[in-house]
Design goal:
The chain is mostly helical. It has 2 helices and 2 strands. It is elongated.
Length: about 80
Amino acid sequence: MSDQHHGLPVAGYRPQNDANVALVNEHKAMEERILRHLDQLRGTGVDERWLSIGRTAIEQGFMAVNRSVFQPARVPLPEDGGPAV
């Protein structure tokens, strides 16, 4: 396997090494296990509103942790006078 992963051509995202990709994939597996558990709670008498709030918070938390690993950068805009995305 290559030590650098180029991934999608999304502005602000840079190539990632094997360790970062493995770490984020591990996070994605953890997140999926938790989300499946929450799916099983639906319709069991729990407060659906709070379940949805909790699910959103968990999704946002994993997204923030993964961004901390991949460290996307801000992107230039046309009004900056440079090359735009």
